[in-house]
Design goal:
The chain is 61% helix and 8% strand. The chain is an alpha+beta fold. The chain folds into two domains: 161 residues, no CATH class; 137 residues, Heat Shock Protein 90 (2-Layer Sandwich). α4 packs parallel to α6 and α5 packs antiparallel against α6.
Length: 391
Amino acid sequence: MKLRRVGLGVTAAVLFGLGVLDLVQHYATKPVFAMVLSAARVVPLLFYRRWPVEAWVTVLTAVVATASVTSPINPNEPWPWSITNVLTVTAVAGLVASTGRRNLSLTMFGVLAGTYLVLAFWPDSGDNWATGVIVVVTSGIAIIVGDFVHARRRMAAELVRERQVSASERELRSVVEERARIARELHDVVAHHMSMITVQAETARFRHKNLPTEAIEEFTKIAHVARTSLSELRGLLSALRDDGADPNRTPQPTLADIPALVDRITASGTPVTLTPAPETTDLPKIVQLAAYRIVQEGLSNVVRHAPKARAWVTLTRTETTLELEITNERPPTPNPPTTRAPRLQDPRPQGHGLTGLRERATLLGGTFEVDQPAGGWRIRASLPFDPHHTQ
């Protein structure tokens, strides 16, 4: 764009200089008057893109005015179409055509041909009709070239857009393929094992005779948790595959599902006390989902790393934030030495679970902290929300 402006400025300056010299040397024109006429013919070239009609009209008016007030010193000089008149008219014709205004170019070409006829029969015009033919022909060629240049520019721009679309489609295809690969891995490995856990837990009472009632109840709870997890996993697989299924058919958990989660954890042998925040059903769904996942992961960590320890879940709502706190006391008995070292060994954990929760909170513009009060563990999260947005 900058190079185009420089080229246009140089062209205008050259035409201005040639016009002044031509009018002074070959026509009976004073220098100051020659500069005015040349400027009137050249300046419209500088604003042809913004005001193409005005540029055309101004140039033609200046050409007619130049022909009206000048006369050739030598009878052999072309008149009324001087060489500089031909150059300026040809230039503006090609420039306007290069902007893609084909109808305007054709209309102005017709006006130019009519102007040629008027000047051709101008009194005392002599036998200089050939210069009129030249200006019409050269302007027509300039319009054809300008229209061709515009078509090439448009094709180049469309090619760039097509390349951008193709690149976006390739990126999207790569993402879809990667999601499909992850979905296959989850289905073939995780879903298979979850299904096996469900089947084994449900058939344990039939495969093992004389099981205590407590063991049967425990296996029943394990089967229920496994089925629930498998259902959530299937919803995740459907979202990853993006196979056209309606995501609303597999609703995401909300704050209303936290009491059931707490009941399941308590039934597994880890007592949990829940203090829910009042009136949370109107919170945005993304905030409710993030809160549920944080509580779910926090309680899962308690079950894994502090079995049988008491835990507390507290939800507090302010006008613009939802505060979460999951705390557990020191476990009553330490984990056996052969047990894998607890994942929560650093207040800045690097495990996938807590890292994912930290990312959830950060994406919502909130905060996520982990610390160790009195030998236990505490997760605190602050999730901001727009009180006027509930989706």
